[in-house]
Write a structure and sequence with these properties.
eight-stranded parallel barrel; alpha/beta; binds phosphoenolpyruvate; 46% helix; 8 strands; 12 helices; 252 residues; globular
Length: 252
C-alpha cells in the first residue's frame, strides 16, 4: 500500500481582520509542533505577508486562495504566482467551488491557472466536486472525470508531484452537511482511478486527495480512516485555532 502523508489546510476565505489573521496564524504555528501532517493556511491576499511572519520557524506552510492565470502585465486586480512566492506562499488554491460557481471560472481557465502556477514554482491545491443537482441525478462520476481531465491536461510528472487534489462536494461546503466517510471514499477512489487510467500508477498512488466540506474535529477521524482520504481542506472550522488544531491532530 502506498503511504501518503496527510495534508490539512485551512481556507480562511474572505474572513478575519489583520489582527485576527495574525493571532490565528500565531496560534496555529504554536500548536503544530511536528511535521507528521503537512499543514497549510490560506489567509486573504492582503494578510499573506503578515501571517507568513507568524509562521516563521514553524512547519505550517502559507497558501493563497487564488492566483492569476497570467505571469505578469496588464491584468488589473490580479496577483501573479511570482508575487505570491515573494510573500512566502508555497501553495495556491485553484478551482474552489466558490470561484467556479460564483465567479464563473471555466475548466479551461482553471487548467490555464494550474499550468501558470506550476510553471512559476508554486504547488497547487486543485479543488473539484459535484453540485447537489449533479449528485441527485447520479452524475458525480461524470463530473469528476471531466474535472480531472480538464484541470490536469498537459501536466508533466514533476508538476503532478506538486498537486494536491481536494474533493469538495459543493453541497457540503459551508452547509454543515458532511459527506459520509463512505461517500468520500467512493469519490476519492474514483478520482484516483481516473488518475491511474490517464497518468499511470506512480501519479495515482502518490497524489494526495483530501476531502473538504463541513469538516469538524468530530467527523475527521471517520473521514481519515478511509484509504483514499489523505487529509482535509477546512473552511469554517479553520477560523478557530482550537478546532483547526483538533482536526490536524485527528488526521495525524
Ligand atoms: C471550503 O471552503 O473549502 C470548505 C471546505 O468550507 P467548509 O469547511 O466551511 O465547508
Amino acid at each position: 500500500m502506498p503511504t501518503r502523508k496527510k495534508f490539512v489546510a485551512g481556507n480562511w476565505k474572505m474572513n478575519t481582520t489583520l489582527a485576527e489573521a495574525k493571532a490565528l496564524g500565531a496560534a496555529v504555528a504554536k500548536g503544530v509542533t511536528d511535521d507528521r501532517v503537512t499543514v497549510a493556511v490560506f489567509p486573504p491576499y492582503p494578510w499573506l505577508t503578515a501571517v507568513g511572519e507568524t509562521l516563521k520557524g514553524s512547519p505550517v506552510a502559507l497558501g493563497a486562495q487564488d492566483v492569476s492565470s497570467e505571469k505578469k502585465g496588464a491584468f488589473t486586480g490580479e496577483v501573479s504566482p511570482a508575487m505570491l512566492l515573494e510573500t512566502g506562499c508555497k501553495y495556491a488554491l485553484i478551482g474552489h467551488s466558490e470561484r467556479r460557481h460564483i465567479i464563473g471560472e471555466s475548466e479551461t481557465f482553471i487548467n490555464h491557472k494550474v499550468h501558470t502556477a506550476l510553471e512559476e514554482g508554486l504547488s497547487v491545491v486543485l479543488c473539484m466536486g459535484e453540485t447537489l443537482a449533479e449528485r441527485e441525478r447520479g452524475l458525480q462520476e461524470r463530473v469528476f472525470q471531466r474535472q480531472v481531465y480538464a484541470a490536469c491536461a498537459g501536466l508533466t510528472d514533476e508538476q503532478f508531484g506538486r498537486i494536491v487534489i481536494a474533493y469538495e462536494p459543493v453541497w457540503a461546503i459551508g452547509t454543515g452537511k458532511v459527506a459520509t466517510p463512505e461517500q468520500a471514499q467512493e469519490a476519492h477512489a474514483f478520482v484516483r482511478s481516473k488518475l491511474r487510467q490517464l497518468y499511470g500508477d506512480k501519479i495515482a498512488d502518490s497524489t494526495p486527495i483530501v476531502y473538504g466540506g463541513s469538516v469538524t474535529p468530530d467527523n475527521t477521524v471517520g473521514l481519515m480512516s478511509q484509504p483514499d482520504v489523505d487529509g482535509a481542506l477546512v473552511g469554517g472550522a479553520s477560523l478557530k485555532a482550537d478546532s483547526f488544531l483538533a482536526i490536524v491532530k485527528a488526521a495525524g
